[in-house]
């Protein structure tokens, strides 16, 4: 079991009141949400984040279609790591240091530009729980990604006197994932490809077709995706399909087969297999009690099979 996971979600309808055994940090990437807690309501716009301790209830009420990245963390791990990375509590904003935070909702305002830099790290965290790596490697990688995450947000956690001038990573010490989808030089390639996959995820994309659509070679497009989104175009499409499939399971009465088909999976077994890899339980069970399941996952029985249209998986983006 990993000490933390990251889950991307979209919301149109309000959620039920839920209590998690882990601390969680909700980051609003698009839209706006009102998060209701025992301490009151908190309106979060794009670029805002809210940290909530374990065993505290919350309810999300989206003001429009909203997209979030939520990190669920073992609170003991989170506090220990934050104390290590922020050793001098005098330099930290009041209430932020783990010795000062009582678990009550804590509003953070890192800004949308910084969250866009963090999204590729969270996507890699999400993928780590699919069982591709042995647990020891997955855990080590998770801690590494967490450290990079804190490195990017640390200036927003410090008291104004100690923040200094903002500095972007550069040179040999820069992390390889920069998440620069907002960079003007990338909008013509990765940005266009991301928009195509996001708006037309129901289509049976191939890497070649996607590369042709944005007028780059397959190999170059794959390199760009890995560098700027944290994963390949194949896995990126799988992840956004899975996020929308999850919303449909939670917010609509569509059958599992119809929900799978709507996001582009002809075979509902594929949707169920990927869903189990993310949440550790089948979508039918999630529908009865919708919340992320943080235990170890079972394998994906159908993930190496053909993904629709009778074509082999190697030819499909998924």
Description of the structure:
The protein folds into 2 domains: 4-164, Regulatory protein AraC (Jelly Rolls), CATH 2.60.120; 184-315, Arc Repressor Mutant, subunit A, CATH 1.10.10.60. A hairpin with a 2-residue loop joins β4 (33-37) and β5. The strands form 2 sheets. It has a 5-stranded antiparallel sheet. Strands 2-7-4-5 form a 4-stranded antiparallel sheet, with no helix packed on it. α5 crosses α6. The model is unreliable at 168-186 and 294-318 (pLDDT under 50). The longest helix is centred in the middle third of the chain and has 23 residues, at 135-157. It has 318 residues and is α+β, with helices and mostly antiparallel strands. It is globular, with a radius of gyration of 19 Å. The chain has 11 helices and 9 strands.
The whole-angstrom Rg is: 19 Å
Mean pLDDT: 83
Strand/helix succession = EEEEEEEEHEHHHHHHHHHH
**What overall geometry do the principal axes of the alpha carbons give?**
globular
Structural class category:
alpha+beta
Give me the side-by-side strand order of the main sheet.
1-8-3-6-9
- Quote the distance from N terminus to C terminus: 27 Å
State the fourth-level CATH superfamily of the largest domain. Regulatory protein AraC
**Poorly predicted ranges:** 168-186, 294-318
Counted by DSSP, the helix tally is 11
Largest sheet: 5 strands, antiparallel
Strand content: 15-25%
> What count of domains describes the coordinates?
2
What's the total count of β strands?
Answer: 9
**CATH architecture level-2 label of the largest domain:** Sandwich
Per CATH, the class of the largest domain reads Mainly Beta
Q: CATH topology of the largest domain, which one?
A: Jelly Rolls
């Amino acid at each position: 079991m990993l000490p933390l996971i990251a889950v991307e979600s979209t919301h149109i309808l309000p959620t039920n009141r839920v209590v998690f055994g882990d601390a969680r940090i909700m980051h609003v990437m698009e839209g706006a949400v009102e998060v209701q807690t025992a301490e009151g309501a908190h309106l979060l716009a794009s670029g805002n984040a809210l940290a909530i301790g374990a065993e505290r209830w919350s309810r999300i009420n989206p003001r429009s279609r909203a997209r979030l990245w939520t990190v669920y963390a073992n609170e003991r791990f989170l506090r220990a790591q934050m104390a290590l990375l922020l050793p001098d509590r005098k330099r930290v904003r009041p209430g932020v240091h783990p010795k000062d935070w009582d678990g009550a909702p804590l509003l953070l305002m890192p800004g949308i530009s910084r969250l866009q830099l963090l999204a590729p790290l969270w996507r890699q965290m999400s993928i780590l729980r699919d069982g591709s790596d042995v647990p020891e490697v997955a855990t080590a990688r998770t801690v590494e990604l967490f450290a990079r995450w804190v490195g990017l947000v640390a200036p927003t956690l410090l008291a104004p006197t100690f923040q200094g001038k903002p500095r972007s990573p550069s040179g040999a010490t820069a992390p390889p994932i920069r998440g620069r989808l907002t960079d003007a030089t990338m909008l013509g390639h990765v940005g266009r490809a991301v928009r195509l996959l996001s708006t037309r995820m129901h289509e049976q994309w191939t890497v070649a077709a996607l590369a042709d659509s944005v007028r780059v070679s397959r190999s170059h497009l794959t390199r760009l995706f890995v560098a700027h989104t944290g994963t390949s175009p194949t896995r990126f499409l799988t992840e956004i399909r899975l996020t929308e499939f999850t919303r449909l399971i939670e917010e609509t009465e569509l059958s599992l087969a119809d929900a799978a088909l709507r996001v582009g999976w002809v075979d509902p077994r594929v949707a169920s297999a990927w869903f189990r890899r993310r949440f550790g339980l089948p979508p039918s069970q999630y529908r009865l009690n919708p919340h992320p399941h943080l235990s170890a996952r079972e394998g994906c029985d159908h993930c190496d099979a053909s993904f629709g249209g009778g074509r082999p998986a190697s030819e499909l983006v998924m």
